[in-house]
Amino acid sequence: MLRPIAPVLALALAIGCAGPAQRGGPTAGAEATSPTGRRLQVELAVTVPQVEDGGSLHVFVPLPRDASAQRVSALAVHAPIEGRIETDALGNRFWHGESAGPREGFEIAVRATVERLPRNSDPVAGAALSDGDRERLAPWLASTDRVPLGDVTAAELSPILEELGPSPAGAAARARQIYEWVVDNVEYKKTGTGWGNGDIFWACSERYGNCTDFHTLLLALARTEGIPGRFEMGFPIPMDRPSGSIGGYHCWVELWLPGATWIPIDASEAAKHPEDRELHFGGEEPDRVLFTRGRDLRLGDDHQGPALNYFIHTFAELDGSRLDGVEQTVRYEELP
Known about the structure:
Blueprint: E1 38-48, E2 51-62, E3 70-78, E4 82-87, E5 93-103, E6 106-116, E7 119-120, H1 131-136, H2 154-164, H3 171-185, E8 187-188, H4 200-206, E9 208-209, H5 211-224, E10 229-236, E11 243-246, E12 250-257, E13 261-265, H6 267-272, E14 283-284, E15 288-293, E16 315-318, E17 321-322, E18 327-335
Parallel strand pairs: 8-9
Antiparallel strand pairs: 1-6, 1-18, 2-5, 2-16, 3-6, 4-5, 7-14, 10-12, 10-15, 11-18, 12-13, 16-17
Helix pairs in contact: 3-5, 4-5
C-alpha cells in the first residue's frame, strides 16, 4: 500500500522521458489488470527549499486532468501554505500556493484516483478537414516558441514533406505518412546535450532525442499540412507492476482527424517497440496518466516569468524569478 498522504521522497524525478514500461503480462504476484481499464492511485511529493530572502513565493504543481480516456477523482492537496486549484487557458489543472518569505523549506503532497481506459480510434478514410474545423481548432495549428512554423522553418520541413510526396486523399492518410516517416527517421536516444527540449531545429538537424523531440517534429509536420495537433504530457504507468516509483515523464500527441476527432499517436514508443507500431497510431493502452496539454504555457497572473516550454515538473517563483532546488517524486498503486 502507498503511505499516508505525506512526503514521499523515493526517487527524484529525472528530467527525461521514461516512456511506458515494456509490454507483457503481470509479474508473479501482481494483481491482474482489467482489459477494459485500470484504477490507479497517483501521488506527487514536492519539496520546496528554504527561502532566506523576503518576497512573494508562488508554487505551481501540475495535477492530472480529465480527458476522453481518463477520469480523476478524490483529488487532494496537502501543504503548509495557502493555495488553491486553478485552471489555465487550455484546461490544464494545477495547484497554486502563495507564501511570503523568508521561510523554512516545506513539502507538498498530492494524491488522486485516476481511471484510465484503453483507446482505439478509426478515422474516416479519405475525409478532409473543413475550413470550419481548422478555424475552430486554430490554437492547435499555431506556432510555438520552439516550433515556429511557416517561412521560419520551411528550409527544415519542406524537404521532409517533399520526400513524403504528394498528399494522399484524406487527412488520416497524410497523418499516417508523417507518423511512419518520423518512426523510421528519428532515433530514440539521450546522449550529449540539446535533446529533450522539443526544439524543431534540433529535431530536424539531429534526428534523435526523447519523446519530446519525436513529437515536436511530428506535430510540426502535421500542423504544416493543416492537421491540428496537441502535445500531451504525463507519467508512464507500467502495465507489469502494480505499484512503484516513476522515474521520468512521457509525452505523446493527439491529432484531430475527421470521423475520429482526437486520436492518440506515440511515435517514440513505436520507435522503441517496433512490435507495437500499429497500436501507437490511433490506439493507446492504459499505461499512462495525462497531466497537461500544450506548449508555451502561462499559469495565471501570478506566473511572472517566461511561459513554460511544457509543464510536468513543479516550479516556483520568488519575486518573479524561478526558484531553483524544487524537487518532485511520483508514485502509483493499482487499485481494485
